[in-house]
Amino acid sequence: MLSVLGNRIGLCDHLSRRAFLQIGGLALGGLSLPQILQAEQAAGTGNSSKGIIMIFLPGGPPHQDMWDIKMDAPQEIRGEFTPIQTKVPGVDICELFPRLASISDKLSFIRSIVGASGSHYAFQCLTGHHDRNQPPGGWPALGSVLSKVYGPKDPAVPAYVGLSPKTRHAPWGDNGQPGFLGVAHAPFTPHGEGKGDMVLNGVTLDRLDSRKAVLSSLDRFRRNVDQSGMMEGLDAFNQQAFGILTSSKLADALDFEREDPSAIERYGRGEDRLQSDGSTRLLTNFLVARRLIEAGVRCVSLSFSRWDWHGNNFGRARQDMPMLDQAVSALIEDLDHRGMLDDISVVVWGEFGRTPKINGNGGRDHWPRVSCAMLAGGGMRSGQVIGETNRLGEYPVSRPVHFQEVFATLYRSLGIDIDHVALPDLQGRPRYLIEQNAYRPMPELV
């Protein structure tokens, strides 16, 4: 196997030269890249400029300590934080998010997410569905749907990229599954196990300073191919695959060090270390997400830290929330400055909320009855709060918003008509993306 960021190279004299194109499916289940490209072409491509960045907070963030501070609740529920005013009159959020407060006119806070399955996983935040009673093949992630419906924008760049690392609690490291759409529409994963998919003959991102460096690393292979006459025999998909491997566009997008240092400082670097069984605090992933979208990726999924705070809720919040505040605000401002925010949707959420009552360890436990989300961009209306919970933050008292409603809204923002787009499952039965006649795009946002 040829590894196109890792330390292993499998292209050697013991493998045929045609095996050069069999690159382990780019972490897509073992398909060859030509097969993936052929499947993508069969699905059809589109020139839509729409895209999405999905930010998952593994473990379930505390809604009442973020966007829904309950100052009138008893001390054992209210917690330690106070609200601050945002740029939008009448909208307050936690004091640990001053940067987001300053750009709240570009954001929408949902305080009344319902329908959580209660499972500790990313699945529902990536698909909009429970993992129970799935159709044959399973529900596809939103990024896989984009890959299927629109195809890649650029043959040198995958339609769907997942930046979440492999986690000890595996469901938190899920970048999204292609489900019944097939492995051709799975996310490309340049981190974790997929890290070996981005090295050409030992040339790492640190050395990929130009397209010339990538091409020069293949000179010997090119000569061998040309001498054997194999190049003339490659079909169109093999040639396209070869073009991807000899292009530095994806590697360049992943190399955030190419950014101006001031841009990197705005996002922050964070910490590239797994938080227990959760994800990393790697803030540069937010910058990489923007770079990937700009390079032509349609969907980027990423995770940040670990939010399953059964103990020391407020200590952990003082560490993680300011970091999240910095990275998300930098991302939104960056997209806006580059004229991309109207086309690119951003969603920030976790799998469920936390208990109103603080436990004996100073933490909050699992609470699927209500949670929160933040959305921005994608042409959606902004500068508002949607939904309201009761005085204790236990359940919605107005405008409960189901996961499927959020996905219906996101699909609309991405130009996909949920009333007409139905994709076949593994038994050939057409499947609508959203439960028909049950959930619609949110009128507050569209």
From TrEMBL:
It holds the Pfam family DUF1501. InterPro entries: Alkaline_phosphatase_core_sf (IPR017850), DUF1501 (IPR010869). Signal peptide: none annotated. This is DUF1501 domain-containing protein. The lineage of its organism: Bacteria, Pseudomonadati, Planctomycetota, Planctomycetia, Planctomycetales.
